[in-house]
Structures are given as structure tokens and as C-alpha cells.
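Lab notes, practical 5.
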Amino acid sequence: MTTESEATREILERFNGAFEAHRPEDLDDLIGEGCVLENTTPAPDGARYEGREACLNFWKGVASSADLVFKAEEIFAMGDRGIIRWQLRWSQREADRTRGVNIMRVRDGKIVEALGYMKG
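Output from the prediction step:
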């Protein structure tokens, strides 16, 4: 793995860790100016957030929700691009879960693009 790939993976691991630990404050130094986020919902294209503050506010809301439980299935990086495959649960019922993926881009140690997709 190249140094750039290692750095990208480390940023994505920290990003995902903020959701798993419900620590929205851990996101503060991970999101870059000009960040663009395409959320998983609503179908078919997902809501679009543009700019650091818009992305950060959205993600902090998700990370602070005690009702949502994220678990990474895999985190992979290649250069400035990375993928997080995840599972999301919102109750203890087996049916109350979904799986998804975020396709991310990191520039200068900050997340600048995130495209979210979810199994329907």
C-alpha cells in the first residue's frame, strides 16, 4: 500500500470510528473545505450537501444519534480514494438493519467527497 493509500485509510478509519463510538466531535478535523456529500436517501439520487459546514452538520447529527449503530465491514483505500462498507442497525430486531457503502475522496488529509449507497 502506498503512503497516500495509508493516509487515506487512516482518515477513513477515524471517520468511521466517530460513528461507531458516537463521537461527533471527532469529525471536526476530518472534513475539508468544499466537501460534497451525496447521502443514501432519498431515492433515487440522495440529498446533496455542499461545503464543509453542511457536510459536517449532517454527519454530526448522524454520529450523535444513540439509536443508530454503525459497524464497518471493510475499509479499503487506493491513493486518494477509499471505500467504507458498513452495516447500520436501528434496533435489536434482525430486520431493522441495512448495509451500504461510502465511496470517499481525501485531499490534503481531509475528506472532500463522499458518495453514499445503500441496499434497498
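Observations recorded by the TA: The radius of gyration is 14 Å. The chain has a mean pLDDT of 96.
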